[in-house]
Amino acid sequence: VKKNGIDRYTGRVNLDQKISKFVKTGITLTLSRNETHGDGGSLTSAASFNPLIPIKEEDGTWGINPLTSYMANPVAMLDITQNSKKDRVLANSYIEVKPLENLTLKVNGGFDRQAQKNGSYIPGHLGDNYNNGTAYIAQGDKVDYLFDFTANYLKKIGNHNINALVGYSFERFTQETVMAGNSNFLTDAFLYHYLWGGAAERPAVGSGASKREMASFFGRINYSLMDRYLLTATLRADGSSVFAENNRWGYFPSVALAWRFTEEEFMEPLQNTLSNGKLRLTYGKTGNSSAMEGAISYYKAGYEHVFGDKNSAGVYLNQIGNPDLTWETTTEWNVGLDLGFFNNRLNVTAEYYNRVIYDLLSSRKLLSYHEVTSIQANIGKTQSQGFELTINTENMRTPNFSWTSDFTFSFYRDKWKERDPSWNPGIHEKYKAPIRAIYAYVSDGLIQPGDEVPQMPGAIPGQVKIRDTGSYIYNEDGSIQVDTHGKPLRSKDPDGEINDADKILLGSSDPGYLLGLNNSLRFKNFDLNIYFYGQLNLWNNGSYKRTWLSGGANIDRGYNMPVTLQDTWSHDNMDAIYPTMLPSTAGYGSGDYFWKKIWFIRCRNITLGYTFPKQFINKWSSNLRVYAEVTNPFVLTSYDGLDPETDTANVSYPNMQGISIGVNVSF
Question: What is the pTM of this model?
Answer without folding.
Answer: 0.84
